[in-house]
Amino acid sequence: SFQQAVIDVLVKKTIRAAKQYSVKSVLLCGGVAANSALREQLEQACIKHKFNMYKPKMAFCTDNGAMIANAGYYMALSGCEPAGMDLNAYATLDITRE
Q1: How far apart are the first and last CA of the chain?
Q2: Does the N-terminal or the C-terminal CB of the chain have fewer CB atoms within 10 Å?
């Protein structure tokens, strides 16, 4: 299946990177941490290759969309004006500028 193919690649590349950079631990985080098959298979690979593996509890792996919607709800209640359609993200913005 597609999901299994993706998990195979993620596990293989994670283990390869961990070996290449001589790390002792692997952390599974972000949205993919909610995938139970990935959690199990990465954990088994870490055991096999003697890496410590850390992962958040499933309760902390929920969809960020719910968090963003909740923040938007409270912003709307407070009378905050929504951003316009011209809002943009700048990945290289110098954060040291005032």
Answers
A1: 50
A2: C
Q: Which residue has the tokens 């999901």?
A: 3
Q: Per residue in 11-22, pLDDT tens?
A: 999 999 999 999
As a residue count, the chain comes to 98
Angle between helices 36-48 and 2-20 (to 10 degrees): 40
Amino acid at 89: A
**Does residue 39 contact residue 33 with C-beta atoms inside 8 Å?**
yes
Dist CA 53 CA 75 (whole Å): 37
Q: Other C-beta atoms within 10 Å of 34: how many?
A: 16
Strand segments (E) across 1-98? 25-27, 52-54
| C-alpha–C-alpha distance, residues 82 and 73, integer Å | 11
Fill in the amino acid letter for 49. Answer: H
